[in-house]
Amino acid sequence: MQKEYRLRRRNDFRRVFRLGTSAANRQFVVYISPRQAGTGILPGPRIGISVSKKVGNAVVRNRVKRLVKEVTRHWIPDLKEGADVVIIARNPAATMDFYQVESSLRHVFRRAKLFKKYTRP
């Protein structure tokens, strides 16, 4: 995922958790918050990923993060502009393959109404 589409600062994560809305399924929780105007940041969405130690060891957590980044990287043109998104992986995500992660994230993103229009990403 390119640098301008990453959510990295602790304050940004905290703002999304505090002010955002959430949608969830068994594998992922997604928090969405509109970005504050006048921040000088590009208008595209920014995505942050959080994987708890409860999901597994470092190898498992990094694998889940890589899968989520790869899936969302292809969807960036189809996501709403100016949204900050935090994706939290739950325990069942540790055993999923790429296509299962893609299907589960598509489901939760649609529940959160993150796509611009109904397009099949």
Automatic annotation (TrEMBL):
Superkingdom of origin: Bacteria
UniProtKB keywords: Endonuclease, Hydrolase, Nuclease, RNA-binding, tRNA processing
The protein's Enzyme Commission number: 3.1.26.5
Enzyme class: hydrolase
UniProt keyword Amino-acid biosynthesis present: no
Catalytic activity: Endonucleolytic cleavage of RNA, removing 5'-extranucleotides from tRNA precursor
Any one of the GO CC terms: ribonuclease P complex
GO biological process: tRNA 5'-leader removal
Entry's Gene Ontology molecular function annotations: 3'-tRNA processing endoribonuclease activity; ribonuclease P activity; tRNA binding
Biological role: RNaseP catalyzes the removal of the 5'-leader sequence from pre-tRNA to produce the mature 5'-terminus. It can also cleave other RNA substrates such as 4.5S RNA. The protein component plays an auxiliary but essential role in vivo by binding to the 5'-leader sequence and broadening the substrate specificity of the ribozyme.
Complex formation: Consists of a catalytic RNA component (M1 or rnpB) and a protein subunit.
Annotated family: Belongs to the RnpA family.
Listed name of the protein: Ribonuclease P protein component
Species of origin: Baia soyae
Gene: rnpA
